[in-house]
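Example (one chain per record):
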Amino acid sequence: MAAVGLLFVGAVLFINGAMLLGWIDARSAAPMNFFVGALQIITPTYLIFTANGNTDTILQAAGLYLFAFTYLYVGLNLSFGLDGTGLGYFCFFVVLSALVYSWLNFTRFHDPAFGVIWLYWAFLWALFFVVLGLKVESLTKYTGAVCAIEGWVTGWAPAFLLLTGYYNDFKTQLAIALAVFGVVVFGLLAVTLRPGKYVTAERVPTGAPAPAG
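Predicted structure:
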């Protein structure tokens, strides 16, 4: 069930990245944030209630609420034109939590691929914090590009591997590929999307961003 939610996390990250890049109108991104936010509330709630006290299942399911609340927060901000500062500081909370979940996946769950994926999400939500919480709006375009790419590599791709039953066969290779991809691609984007090319403050949607999981 979590894999189904992850597939649509990929969709909302791509949509929100496209919004930050200025490809789509900000308000048109709100419905997808509400849809996926609601799904990410239902999924972990079901998993927790059916866990029969399994602490690992509950621990993993609890992390999904971090993203559910992010997407619902984004949807409300976009719908009502709210200031994004509160969302930005919530993203800082998500960053610290994502780092813990990354460490847990490497050490407790023995899942290196999701250990790397949680690092991806920590990086993306850190960008959201900087853009929205600290108002460094010159990073908006870079954040949008990272967000859109993460929709495919941390949502769509692993979701289909899980849904088709191939994930366990390739999780080590996926971890290595994602680690290399992230360093190379996001590093190149940082060089390519120079500050002079970033979206100006007047074009930043008040309620943007996306994240995860």
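Caption: DSSP finds eight helices and no strands in the chain.
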